[in-house]
């Protein structure tokens, strides 16, 4: 006779058994219905973008996060955070600025050492060198020759003259790739190093851009291989005056000079001015300037064409960059607070200035008689546009006021006869003194057919406030456009 095994469980044991069975079943259910997350891919990645066959203004989108080319329409891309870089022709856009709602931007590192660039930190502090997307006219490729041009959102660093240079009239097209590493911030705020390999694919298809990329840290430093110096280039650092470190017999032939980890006095600047006639480019980003109001700074410098100011610079003194032959002045840092009176006046070859957002005050006549200046943006913290700020800048075409401008002082834009666009980002209009007129003269406001030539861009719904504050007539609303 078969004996039945008889056993009983207490209440606590029953609860434990039920709990165990429950979690076992849940785990089995998850295993059956939820696929495992694939392991995170590690770079570097080498990519060939398959150019869009759509209309010439359609971009081809790519995600660094997923390492995939995406199918996104231009209209949807402006609000999507799924993409990080987009290729149009031979140029590229990032997911930021006018192109997208993300945190995208880019910086050129001036090193080709892709392998040892592992941190974005040294470049994050050079805040004013990062570029977001803007409207630019670039070449596109739709199968016709020569290539046509279109105006659209593009990152200013990722286009002709920057990450490549080309001769569009040549057949076949001649283009040289910039092998410097670029750092891009993704739509979601991570950092990627990117190096362009070629403007054509493995099969020779122009526009199938190839590049390599990898994610990098936000902290730490880089142990980069020192770049090979160009002919007639010198790198100076250490104690002593510039004359002691670079005797005149060597100084007179230097074309490119970088100064690092050193403080320069007015005596050093005078030495550069008088003893270095061949000098064209001066890079002081990792140096310090000890020059004060009452001293001349770079005034009357006729030799250098490009000047990179120190990252830690806090002020540009009275007239310190006036009467020069400078074509480009770069402020890489974001510590500059004050620009003194007449700072850039009569420097007639500078076409555009990118001022750091840290600037709070700009003195009178700071940009007066800059005959080459075409575009200028006043930082958000600047509230007063001082007297004669841009007096007689005959080629100045557009001005943007990024902050809340309280006052436009007299003659601020007098005799700026090419000025056609003033953009005020604040809905509250600035005031100006009774009996004075800070803007361009009345004879420049209309075309020959009496149609408006000058347009004032203001936030939506604020035209009436501007008309009232400036005592304009209702008919003058034709000069305003809302955004």
From TrEMBL:
This protein is called Leucine-rich repeat domain-containing protein
Q: Does the keyword Protease apply?
A: no
- Supply the PANTHER family for this chain: IG-LIKE DOMAIN-CONTAINING PROTEIN, SURFACE ANTIGEN
As given in the record, the signal peptide range reads: 1-18
Q: Which UniProt keywords apply?
A: Signal
Signal keyword on record: yes
List the top taxonomic levels of the source.
Answer: Bacteria, Pseudomonadati, Bacteroidota, Bacteroidia, Bacteroidales
Which InterPro entries would you find in this protein's record?
Answer: HmuY (IPR025921), LRR_5 (IPR026906), LRR_dom_sf (IPR032675), Surface_bspA-like (IPR053139)
């Amino acid at each position: 006779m078969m004996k039945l095994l008889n056993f009983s469980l207490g209440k606590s044991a029953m609860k434990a058994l039920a709990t165990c069975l429950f979690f076992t079943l849940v785990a089995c259910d998850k295993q059956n219905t939820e696929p495992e997350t694939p392991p995170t891919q590690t770079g570097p990645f080498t990519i060939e973008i398959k150019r869009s066959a759509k209309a010439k203004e359609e971009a081809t989108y790519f995600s660094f996060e997923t390492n995939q080319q995406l199918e996104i329409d231009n209209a949807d891309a402006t609000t999507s955070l799924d993409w990080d870089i987009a290729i149009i022709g031979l140029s590229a856009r990032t997911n930021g600025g006018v192109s997208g709602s993300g945190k995208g931007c880019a910086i050129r590192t001036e090193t080709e050492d892709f392998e040892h660039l592992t941190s974005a930190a040294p470049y994050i502090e050079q805040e004013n060198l990062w570029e977001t997307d803007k409207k630019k006219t670039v070449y596109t490729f739709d199968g016709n020759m020569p290539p046509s041009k279109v105006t659209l959102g593009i990152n200013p660093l990722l286009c002709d003259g920057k990450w490549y240079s080309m001769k569009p009239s040549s057949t076949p097209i001649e283009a040289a790739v910039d092998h410097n590493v670029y750092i891009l911030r993704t739509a979601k705020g991570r950092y990627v190093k990117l190096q362009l390999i070629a403007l054509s694919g493995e099969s020779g298809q122009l526009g199938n851009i190839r590049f390599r990329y990898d994610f990098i840290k936000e902290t730490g430093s880089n142990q980069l291989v020192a770049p090979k110096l160009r002919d007639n280039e010198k790198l100076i650092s250490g104690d002593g005056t510039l004359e002691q470190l670079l005797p005149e017999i060597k100084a007179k032939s230097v074309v490119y000079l970088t100064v690092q980890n050193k403080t320069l006095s007015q005596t050093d600047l005078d030495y550069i001015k008088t003893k270095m006639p061949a000098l064209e480019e001066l890079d002081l980003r990792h140096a310090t300037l000890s020059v004060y109001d009452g001293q001349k700074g770079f005034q009357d410098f006729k030799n250098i064409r490009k000047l990179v100011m120190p990252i830690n610079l806090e002020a540009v003194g009275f007239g310190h960059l006036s009467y020069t032959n400078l074509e480009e002045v770069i402020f890489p840092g974001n510590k500059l607070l004050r620009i003194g009176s007449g700072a850039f006046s009569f420097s007639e070859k500078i076409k555009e200035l990118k001022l750091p957002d840290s600037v709070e005050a700009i003195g009178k006549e700071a940009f007066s008689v800059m005959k080459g200046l075409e575009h200028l943006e006043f930082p958000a913290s600047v509230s007063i546009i001082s007297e004669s700020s841009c007096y007689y800048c005959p080629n100045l075409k557009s001005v943007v006021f990024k902050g809340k401008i309280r006052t436009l002082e007299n003659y601020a834009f007098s005799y700026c006869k090419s000025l056609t666009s003033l953009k005020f980002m604040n809905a509250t209009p600035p005031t100006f003194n009774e009996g004075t007129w800070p803007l361009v003269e009345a004879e420049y406001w209309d075309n020959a057919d009496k149609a408006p030539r000058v347009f004032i861009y203001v936030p939506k719904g604020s035209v009436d406030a501007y008309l009232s504050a400036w005592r304009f007539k209702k008919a003058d609303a034709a000069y305003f456009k809302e955004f």
